Amino acid sequence: MSDEENKEEKELDLTSADVVTKYKLAAEIANKALQLVISECKPGAKVVDLCEKGDAFIRAQTANVYKNAKKKIEKGVAFPTCVSPNNTVCHFSPLASDETVLGDNDIVKIDLGCHIDGFVAVVAHTHVLQEGPITGRAADVIAAASTAAEVALRLVRPGRKNKDVTEALQKSLRRTRCMPLIL
Fold first, then answer.
1. Could you tell me the superkingdom of the organism this chain comes from (predicted)?
2. Percentage of the residues of the chain whose pLDDT score is greater than 70
């Protein structure tokens, strides 16, 4: 390995304070963008407007960092803001002409990502547009998704097979009577 390759490899190592700083900064911006989008999720809000606000916030915040760096540092949106209402499983970032609006009691999945110099932070959140506690089938679905995520997190390890994770997820979801359309 040449000295140039060694230097590049070292730059990507998490023992580098600069790398950790970039990850933390990207995460901070992504979390603030997520909070902004959540605060704007109200009945009648256009999904495309929410997505544009999330992306615009990320672009504005990243434009203010590393402005005076010696080399040009790429930064900005790593994953477009997606606001997926109800039965839309994920990653709905509509065209500007889309007229989809949020309604009362909608369950909204929000995900977005920010990067600083290629170091990416991605965040996601499920939000219900209602006052007070979530009950009924909506609560069942959210609890099932949370449990399934925990099952997957515990099982995804080196040496494990995908089918082992899939079987555990199916078993977990069967107990809640909440089955995804595709698994």
1. Eukaryota
2. 91
What does the buried/exposed string (b/e) look like for 77-106 if buried means 16 or more CB atoms within 10 Å of the residue's CB?
bbbebbbbbeebeeebbbeeeeeebbeeeb
Q: What is the pLDDT of residue 70?
A: 85
The CA angle 22-52-83, to the nearest 5 degrees, is: 90
Place of tokens 């901070």: 28
Average pLDDT over residues 141-166: 88
Residue 26 confidence (pLDDT) above 90: yes
What per-residue confidence (pLDDT) applies to 183?
40
CATH of 3-129, one of 3.30.70.1130, 3.40.50.1980, 3.40.50.1370, 3.90.230.10: 3.90.230.10
Contacts of 9 (CB under 8 A, 6+ apart): 1
The domains of the chain are located at 3-129, 133-183
